[in-house]
Amino acid sequence: METIEAGTGEPSFLAGRLALRPREAARALGIGERTLRQILPEIPHVHVGSAVVIPVDLLREWLRSRARAEQRRADQVVHEVLADVAPR
Predict the structure, then answer these.
(1) Which residues contact 52 (CB under 8 A, 6 or more apart)?
(2) Taking the model in full, what pTM does it have?
(3) By three-state DSSP, how is residue 4 classified?
(4) Dmax over Cα atoms in the chain, in whole Å?
(5) What is the rounded CA–CA span in Å between residue 51 and residue 12?
(6) How many CB atoms neighbour CB 41 within 10 A?
(7) Which of 6, 51, 53, 65 matches a 20 to 30 Å C-alpha distance to 17?
(8) Nearest-angstrom CA–CA distance, 34 and 11
(9) For residue range 54-86, what is the model confidence (pLDDT) as tens digits?
(10) How far separated are the first and last CA of the chain, in Å rounded?
(11) 3-state SS of 7-71?
């Protein structure tokens, strides 16, 4: 069972971390490591020698940006559907 850091609501393995390895980032996002590696080119990451690290702050911003973009797309679809069914 995963412990939650007091006051943050985040898993304890994220506490105070500047960056995550891909396996940790996948765990934090709730996706499989294979999926994370498939989308890695679009996630901000840094090569440190042969290691790949994903800055926590940039990962959070990337996720917020993706969520906003998906919400805008959903809003646009709703607008289009409503425009199609509105009486003329």
Answers:
(1) 21, 22, 40, 45, 46
(2) 0.71
(3) strand
(4) 62
(5) 22
(6) 7
(7) 65
(8) 21
(9) 999 999 999 999 999 988 888 888 888 888 787
(10) 57
(11) CCCCEHHHCCCCEECHHHHHHHHCCCHHHHHHHHHHCCCEEECCEEEEEHHHHHHHHHHHHHHHH
